[in-house]
User: What shape does this take?
Amino acid sequence: MSDFREDGALAVDWVASYLERVGELPVLSQVEPGQIRAALPESPPDEPEPFSAVLADLDSVLMPGLTHWQSPRFFAYFATTASEPGVLAELVIAGLNQVGILWRTSPALQELEELTVDWLRQLVGLPDGFTGHIEDTASTGVLAAVIAARTRLPDRRVLVCSEYAHSVGEKAARLLGLELRKVPTDDEFRMRPDLLGADDACAVVATIGTTGMTSVDPVPEIADRCAENATWLHVDAAYAGSAAICPELRHHFAGWERADSIGVNPHKWLGVPMDCSVLWTSREEEFRRAFSLVPEFLRSPDDAVNLSELSIPLGRRFRALKLWAVLRCYGRAGLQELIRDHLRLAALFESWVRDEPGWEVSAARHFSLVCFRRQGSDEDNERLLESVNASGEMFLSHTRLDDRYVLRLAIGNFRTTEDDVRLAWDVLRREAAAL
Amino acid sequence: MSDFREDGALAVDWVASYLERVGELPVLSQVEPGQIRAALPESPPDEPEPFSAVLADLDSVLMPGLTHWQSPRFFAYFATTASEPGVLAELVIAGLNQVGILWRTSPALQELEELTVDWLRQLVGLPDGFTGHIEDTASTGVLAAVIAARTRLPDRRVLVCSEYAHSVGEKAARLLGLELRKVPTDDEFRMRPDLLGADDACAVVATIGTTGMTSVDPVPEIADRCAENATWLHVDAAYAGSAAICPELRHHFAGWERADSIGVNPHKWLGVPMDCSVLWTSREEEFRRAFSLVPEFLRSPDDAVNLSELSIPLGRRFRALKLWAVLRCYGRAGLQELIRDHLRLAALFESWVRDEPGWEVSAARHFSLVCFRRQGSDEDNERLLESVNASGEMFLSHTRLDDRYVLRLAIGNFRTTEDDVRLAWDVLRREAAAL
Assistant: This one.
């Protein structure tokens, strides 16, 4: 085992050095498609190589092909962080290599998963009628929720979401052969419950913090409509759900306690490395009815309930360990402080945009995402985005709102400081002036 | 970053110590349901705790609730290994926290994934018409393949597999609202192609190395029937596929190159930590047609193809890095040596059972799994299994073959030696004598 200790020291040092310098690396990879693969051998080696050779190639071959999600100036999509306790927990997870299939294949995995998703439930202020488990991503979580809904209401063939909902709803509908109905939104990009028409729907996906502009669907009114029609309500709070840890932000989450299922991704805004998406439900029995299938070779003498009876994959990683590590090493206070700071930085950036002639804020800001644009054409804004991203100094993404091209600055990396946000604004104005 | 280096050293030391002593720990956890959770705080902490506190609780609270998949005497289900380069690669994966959504969100992730699944394709001797990607588990891989098949043949509502196929087929059928037809098997538990009836099927799942007893469906004949009816053929070689790295075992895989899709799990028999399930297809376009959906907020100026257009989750981990590390640090020769040794050990155990009065081998052995039983009733064998597992000295599982209860000894952990297998046999005879 001396090799493992030696190689482990090298690996820890490599990661530590990476995290020390990640702020200086070009955020968006600047390689051409195919460039990384072309620099690697076409065939696997016949003979063993040392682990140090793998680390060496990370630097010399792969590094230019990385887009640095850990950079403090990654502002695209939703910014994420693999926090230090989360990263080290992944090492332990891999070392233990627990495979959660049945309870008995790892009682600690299953019970820690049940516990940590309950801890998170308490942190975000959901009532104790919800139980939960961890999925890889919200795509899978939404798909699983819709499968549970369809098992309950097999004759309804419609899935409903807003026109600004994430594409996961559309994907779930397509994969399951359901019809998707996109409900129009009001002038703040919120689903209009008066146009919901839930009576033929097996499920409605409402979003708190849509991907495009973090709008908040009117969940109380949607829940009323769903209740009238016995329609399943899934609340997708993949990004914004973490913000409910701060009591002063809970008003955005009014009514979500009436959902049949809720998704929140700790791998987005809570410092947990990819992947960790929590799915709660107040109808665990319906999930079991949809997913439970225990073949003979998996029958066991205990009568414990198995997490694999609630989701698509049969085996699961010990993801709970990283969620546990992060919740403990930050604590409620630490996570609140980070989220509040991200909102402060977003408000600051928003104020700069609002006060600058020739720029405009494009959507109401609820959390840590600012949607904005330069006055002018869509093409001007698209060119601006591309030149900013090509600089390597930061990485932004875009969306379309009311059919206009809009830039998105998403704050969510734990290392982002006011200096980083100020630099972003400087680069944006510099590149805009140069166009 | 000094904390990360310090905590990292603690974590490496913890994992190294764990792997040094894992052979001495009770293999199957002996706790009662609820025991682990009851030993942990019901609510999350308000204030931060050090990472060392997490490691301390791993020892003092979680350890009894672990079933030790890394133990050399884990012989249940299919034995797996998180090899040392694979474990350390997970540390790097988490440190980089790449999120593969679009090519540009991590060109290195996507291109290394395409490369490593191609390396594995070459290692197992598949032709170059197959491209691939990594799924979490074979459950998801089979589901994805059936979704692709159903997209191609939307009017066919039947999924076919053998009566001894893994439950993943049944689960996929249920989740997608398809009818499952289980085809009877011959006296070696192989699907009978003459009873296939593929003309109304959208897909047939054939298995090379079934979970129960590693039987091998007659893929060439099944492929003929599928070709006649334009039915999608998925070959599930989740466990056994790794054995195709050894040319002398390739005969078991005759015909799999005619499949539309094939699944092999490097997290089973190739030393890659959970989770890493490779899904190849000769019909990538059909996968794209089923899964591709790029919303506005994900459009990018490059015209690269994105791996997220081929599978259920939108975002993926940098799993390719651990597959790459393992393929390089073992090399073709190293992996062949391990697999051959596992087959040697399985043959040895099989010979002991065969030569011992009162015991019998219950199914032909093709790979590293031995199915056997003590002559006597099912209840006798079930009691034997429970007493062996309760001893903590080893962990076996069971299945039913021809409606008889049968014990399974699966060899697949890289640390398993002849001494471990001999101990297993000694414990089995000791416990049988004591009953």
Summary: The longest strand of chain B covers residues 201-207. Chain B has two domains: 2-68, 88-327. The longest helix of chain B spans residues 320-355.
